[in-house]
């Protein structure tokens, strides 16, 4: 069966510090991968999605970036965090036209 | 741009009642829709998929898709307090999620 791992579960970072969130999927090949952000009490905002290694589509201009160095690995990064980057970050995978499956999420607080 | 809109919440229903959640969409080409449940502080989990016009039932849950009117709905029968959560709908490409409807089932 397929599983998705996302870490860390919580993270507290100072403004201006770098960020690296990692997500890995097991049990499937060539999945579509997604990064979402959810502000408190709000809906899901798609940040990036990837249909293959090295293929990244950005939905929202911001100071975040994503990379897919391996088939089942998706990384969300920032060089300098802003206060507005606080939120709940979710990684998800799917195969085309099938439902997405989400990781447990990372709750990021910026101080 | 594809849009998915959910009826305004929050929604409160008494225990045992039917909860009705609705979603409208803009892209007539959308073929499939998914409903997710998200408990507070947790990630969304898939509860229903619907791939064609009509109804899809799974236990107490029924998803309905009406392509002519461009809406999709989720009915929860015999609502339980454990159903209290935010429900999100998503269209097939899943690049677009509704903003969610918060459901509270009152004991």
Give a written overview of the molecule.
The complex is a heterodimer of chains A (111) and B (107). With 111 residues, chain A is mainly beta. Chain A has strands at 3-7, 10-13, 19-26, 32-38, 44-52, 55-58, 64-70, 73-78, 87-94, 101-102, 106-110. In chain A, strands 2, 4, 5, 6, 9, 10 and 11 form a seven-stranded mixed beta sheet that branches. In chain A, strands 1-3-8-7 form a four-stranded antiparallel beta sheet, with no helix packed on it. With 107 residues, chain B is mainly β. Chain B is 0% helix and 52% strand. Chain B has a five-stranded antiparallel beta sheet with strand order 1-3-8-7-6, with no helix packed on it. Chain B has a five-stranded mixed beta sheet with strand order 2-10-9-4-5, with no helix packed on it. In chain B, strand 6 and strand 7 (61-66) form a beta hairpin. At the A-B interface, strand 5 and strand 10 of A face strand 5 of B.
Quick tags:
heterodimer; A: 111 residues; mainly beta; seven-stranded mixed β-sheet; four-stranded antiparallel β-sheet; 11 strands; 0% helix; 59% strand; globular; B: 107 residues; five-stranded antiparallel β-sheet; five-stranded mixed β-sheet; 10 strands
Counting DSSP E segments of at least 2 residues, the number of strands of chain A comes to 11
The most extensive contact between chains is: A-B, 18 and 21 residues
What is the count of DSSP helices of chain A, taking H or I runs of 4+ residues?
Answer: 0
Shape by Cα distribution of chain B: globular
Mean pLDDT of chain A comes to 93
């Amino acid at each position: 069966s397929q599983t998705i791992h996302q870490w860390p579960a919580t993270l507290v970072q100072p403004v201006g510090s770098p960020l690296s969130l990692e997500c890995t999927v097991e049990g499937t090949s060539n999945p579509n991968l997604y990064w979402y952000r959810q502000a408190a009490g709000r809906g899901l905002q798609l940040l990036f999605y990837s249909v293959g290694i090295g293929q990244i589509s950005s939905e929202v201009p911001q100071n975040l970036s994503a990379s897919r160095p391996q088939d089942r690995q998706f990384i969300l990064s920032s060089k300098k965090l802003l206060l507005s980057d606080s939120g709940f970050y979710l990684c998800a995978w799917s195969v085309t036209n099938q439902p997405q499956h989400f990781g447990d999420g990372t709750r990021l607080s910026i101080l | 741009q594809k849009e998915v809109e959910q009826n305004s919440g929050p929604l409160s229903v008494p225990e045992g009642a039917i909860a009705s959640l609705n979603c409208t969409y803009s892209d007539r080409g959308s073929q499939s829709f998914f409903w997710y449940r998200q408990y507070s502080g947790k990630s969304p989990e898939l509860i229903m998929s619907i791939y064609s016009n009509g109804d899809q039932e799974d236990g107490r849950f029924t998803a309905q898709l009406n392509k002519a009117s461009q809406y999709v709905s989720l009915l929860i029968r015999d609502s339980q307090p454990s159903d209290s959560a935010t429900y999100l709908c998503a269209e097939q490409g899943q690049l677009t999620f509704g903003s969610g409807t918060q459901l509270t089932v009152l004991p």
